[in-house]
Write a structure and sequence with these properties.
alpha+beta, hypothetical protein PF0899 fold, 4-stranded mixed β-sheet
Length: 271
């Protein structure tokens, strides 16, 4: 499960186009250089600092989530084991009571010479003992079933938690780096067959970033002759829908989160 979550975060972060190799050459103003060059370099540095801040936040969220998941699973395990232990204790008590009663009748019959009564009493007690034994077995089986329900329930909570964390990380990244929408649009267009005329629908918050990057988007996807960008408030920030003559590519955030949830459910032991 953790591999699925981590691979998703890698995918979310992959659109980043600025890589910090540790050098600061881009800040150096050569002789005859301009203040604009220096300003651009500072802007790039500020952007990378923002990106680093988001990554640190995402890392903190994942660490907190991992701890919450461990505690959740541990609690479920302890609760289920407690149910099993109580069931075994109760079952053993039922069995011991039946044995004690059977032994008592045998001893009374032996001391009083009640052969007929002994045989009849032994039969009655044996039937009662077998009934109690079955009751004990049913109790243990029910406890095991309850244990599986608890574990399955905790796994579902873990999946829901992972999806919630994914949504939170996406929101923080988009808030700090709104241009990520451009890379999301590019990836969506790569899945389109006929790219000659495309309509891209994005949330109104992502309109400016997408429109300003139209040329960049066209260059990244060969064959795009006409690209129209429309605002669609039904699409959450960070997602898009690409329409072409051949069909539609749905890259909305909720759709992506749904795929994550499905992937997590598939790797769950009880799925």
């Amino acid at each position: 499960m953790s591999r699925v979550i981590k691979s998703f975060f890698v995918q979310i972060q992959s659109p980043r186009v600025i890589e910090n190799d540790g050098s600061t050459d881009f800040l150096r103003v050569e002789a005859g250089g301009s203040l604009e060059t220096l300003g651009a370099g500072l802007a790039g540095l500020e952007y990378e600092q923002d990106v680093g801040h988001v990554k640190n936040q995402a890392r903190e969220i994942l660490q907190e989530t991992e701890q919450m998941v461990k505690e959740l699973i541990q609690t479920a395990r302890q609760e289920s084991e407690k149910i099993i232990a109580n069931a075994n204790t109760e079952a053993q008590k039922i069995i011991n009571d039946g044995r004690d009663k059977l032994k008592q009748i045998e001893e009374e019959a032996f001391h009083h010479g009640w052969q007929g009564g002994y045989e009849e009493g032994h039969k009655v007690v044996e039937e009662e003992y077998n009934s109690k034994l079955q009751e004990a077995q049913n109790l243990v089986e029910k406890a095991h079933e309850e244990k599986q329900k608890i574990i399955a329930g905790s796994e579902d909570e873990v999946v829901q938690l992972a999806v919630a964390v994914s949504r939170k990380v996406i929101g923080r990244e988009l808030a700090t780096s709104p241009e990520i929408i451009v890379e999301i649009v590019k990836r969506a267009i790569q899945k389109v067959g006929d790219r000659e005329e495309l309509t891209v629908r994005v949330n109104p918050e992502n309109m400016d970033s997408t429109i300003n990057a139209q040329d960049e988007i066209k260059q990244s996807a060969k064959g795009v002759r006409k690209l129209k960008v429309l605002a669609d408030p039904t699409i959450a920030p960070g997602g898009c829908v690409v329409e072409s003559s051949n069909g539609t590519v749905d890259a909305r955030v909720e759709r992506q989160l749904g795929e994550i949830k499905q992937a997590l459910m598939e790797v769950s032991p009880n799925a």
